[in-house]
Amino acid sequence: KELQYNRAPAVAPMGVLEQADGWKKISLDLDTIEKHKAVLAGAPHFAENIRSIFEERREFEPAVEPEAKLYDGFVNDRDRLRIETIRNANERELADFHPEFSDDRLSDLLLHYKARNYPKTLSETEATQWEVWRAERIRRQLPGFMKSLQRIMKNDTENEHEFLRQELQLWLEAIMPFETDF
Fold this sequence. Notes:
By secondary structure, the chain is mainly alpha-helical. The protein is 58% helix and 0% strand.
């Protein structure tokens, strides 16, 4: 087994538990440890079963949203400086700022940042890219939204929430993108 820092389970020498009531704090004693060790030694396939479980664990689906893609890894120092420049830029400076990121994820993230916070800074191309992304996202989420709306309608037999349902329907119609040939 390869040990890694800052991972669970924690591994330390037994002497650590001798200090400051360590055994008492974790509600464990040497007799219990020896008993569990004997049980594990009597089950030769246990370690192999555990290893195979982690080997067969499915990978996470790749992120679709630019914001979620940030969890795929750290940003390098050079790009981190550019990000800081973006955060400190005002609206006018941001409109003309087009950094060359070495991390591909950051270009889409910059577009989203500008579109959400400073939509007037978007060029025509950027505005089109934003609308295409927004339309695709709404289309992806629409089935789940409609299913939830239908569930609310089905459970509301006395029409207590009719106004809310109508408002949600109007809101959906208002945010739906126009059908265009981007």
